[in-house]
Design brief:
There is one protein chain. 70% of the residues lie in helices and 0% in strands. The chain is built from two helices and no strands.
Length: 79
């Protein structure tokens, strides 16, 4: 199996971080919509579950952010 180059690792890391950002945004939107509903035990339970998922995504993001090379510039299709 071929070992990934540093550039390839940074590209994969960049994509993973973008994916985590999108997932977090979607969860934040769900939480916002749910928070506007009439208060019920089911709604509160669902908010707790979504909040736990969001905390996990943010923890993953913070962890993987530690591996990012500050000098890495992801290639753009428009360059």
């Amino acid at each position: 199996m071929k070992k990934m180059s540093e550039n390839e690792q940074q590209q994969v890391l960049s994509l993973a971080l973008e994916s985590l950002q999108v997932q977090a945004t979607l969860l934040e939107n769900q939480i916002s919509e749910l928070a506007q509903e009439i208060r019920t035990l089911e709604r509160d339970d669902e908010l707790d579950k979504l909040d736990a998922q969001l905390r996990a995504i943010r923890a993953d993001y913070a962890y993987f952010q530690g591996f990012v090379d500050a000098d890495f510039k992801r290639a753009s299709y428009y360059d």
